[in-house]
Amino acid sequence: FFLMIRRPPRSTQSRSSAASDVYKRQVMNSVMITMVIACFLMILLTIKDDINKKIAVEVDQVRIDIQRCAEEYRLNKCLRDERVPAMEDFCTEREKCMNQDPLQVVRSSKMSASLVAEIINSFVEPLSLKTMGFILALVFGTIIFWNCALMGLSLIHIS
């Protein structure tokens, strides 16, 4: 039935308003995408900051371990000229412990993976599936709403 109804030819005014609606829709989509990207970047920066804090804590812990090893090395008389042969293995371990680089220990792949996993879990764990679903539905619903609303406006201008 609707195919039989002929629309009058579009005037230049309706064409320009249709083009204007397309630009409005593009602007709204750009704004929405920019907001999503900004939120994503804020999350990444927060995670990076958390990683740096965790690394600092781990480096401090390794430094404490190094100090403990140095103290044990000194107390057990592990200096080369004072070392007892029975303590050779113990003293060698303490010497390796004292000479390690704290940043190198923390930046090892196993330690880094553990830190990243811990931070991501602490970020995602408090969010329930309902909350994550709601956030995604809100973002996509807003995008769909704006597109439908602007498309409806363009249909009003056309007819």
Question: Notable features of this structure?
Answer:
single chain; 159 residues; mainly alpha; 79% helix; 5 helices
Please give a structural write-up.
The protein has 159 residues and is mainly α. It is built from 5 helices and no strands. It has helices at residues 12-75, 88-98, 102-106, 109-124, 129-158. The longest helix has 64 residues, at 12-75. The chain is rod-shaped, with a radius of gyration of 32 Å. The two termini are 17 Å apart. Mean pLDDT is 78; it is low at 1-8.
Shape: rod-shaped
DSSP helical segment count: 5
Would you identify the regions where 5 or more consecutive residues have pLDDT less than 50?
Answer: 1-8
Radius of gyration: 32 Å
List the helices and strands in order: HHHHH
Specify the structural class: mainly alpha
Query: Mean pLDDT score, rounded?
Result: 78
- Helicity level, as a percent range? over 70%
Q: Main beta sheet: strand number and arrangement?
A: none
β content, as a range?
A: under 5%
Distance between the termini: 17 Å
**Total beta strand runs:** 0
